Amino acid sequence: MPAESPRSSRPAWLLPVAVVAVAAILVALILAMNRDGDTGATGELDPSGEGAPTEVDGPAQPDFSEAERRDESDLLAIGPVDAPVVVVVFSDYQCPFCAKWSEETMPLMTEHVEAGDLRIEWRDVNVFGPASERAARASYAAAEQGAFWEYHDELFAGGDTRSEGDLSEDALIALADELGLDTDQFTADLASEQTAQQIADNQQLGLDIGAYSTPAFILGGQPIVGAQPSQVFVDAFDDALSAAE
Q1: Strand 216-219's sheet: what is its strand order?
Q2: Distances (CA, A) of 144 to 6, 123, 181
Q3: Euclidean distance between CA atoms 237 and 129, whole angstroms
Q4: Fewer C-beta within 10 Å: the chain N or C terminus?
Q5: What is the C-alpha separation between 191 and 6, in angstroms, rounded?
């Protein structure tokens, strides 16, 4: 798999503390009830990720490590399958906060991947609709040629999302051509049932654990939801690594 393209870290975004505190309680209840099979929860989190909560703290916090696949054949993952810590990323290619995370925080996480301490598993939830699902299929088609992360980086170039028009089938095929991929194979994989099924399975994984908004993360079995500062992930990784050791 091609190496991550280097990026410089920029100051992370912040959210109002009061909103974060209230929303953290809500997401803890939603995640826990979805995990326990309780269908009584109503409403969904803001699909933009804005105003979403930080890590859910407290001794009773459930473990969501079942979201980890640790599958050597996973085309949307990077890092050792036996890494002590896994972060599962639930994202959407039209989500601006997902783009910010990829630009600002992922380079910090990639350092731990290179050290062999972290595995990143990417899952698209596609809460923004057909263009998102099409982009997710395109990224998987690129992954079939070993270029998932290169394609992913271009979809989030500069920490920004592309317009819906730039996520048309023609535009996505043109991007594959720019990256030097076999466009005939890419076009076939983009439209294949196998690709569609894989994307649907990834989305269902997110929905099954209550990831109704993006970005959402399971890091070391613990949920982190929304547009959080990079330091939240750095600290969560350090805690998870210490616990694993």
Answers
A1: 77-78, 118-124, 85-91, 216-219, 222-225
A2: 22, 15, 10
A3: 31
A4: C
A5: 31
- CATH code for the part of the protein at 65-244: 3.40.30.10
Q: Where are the beta strands (DSSP E) in the chain?
A: 77-78, 85-91, 118-124, 216-219, 222-225
Burial tier of 224 (Cβ tally within 10 Å: 0-12, 13-18, 19+): buried
DSSP 62: P
Q: What are phi and psi of 117, to 5 degrees?
A: -100, -10
184's enclosing H/E stretch is: helix 183-191
**Residue 236 tokens, joined:** 């969560």
Output the tens digit of pLDDT for each of the chain's 245 residues: 444 443 433 333 333 333 333 333 334 434 443 444 433 222 233 434 443 434 445 455 678 999 999 999 999 999 999 999 999 999 999 999 999 999 999 999 999 999 999 999 999 999 999 999 999 999 999 999 999 999 999 999 999 999 999 999 999 999 999 999 999 999 999 999 999 999 999 999 999 999 999 999 999 999 999 989 999 999 999 999 999 98
Return left, alpha or beta for 106; rule: phi > 0 is left, psi -120 to 50 is alpha, else beta: alpha
Task: State yes or no: cis peptide before 16, omega within 30 of 0.
Answer: no
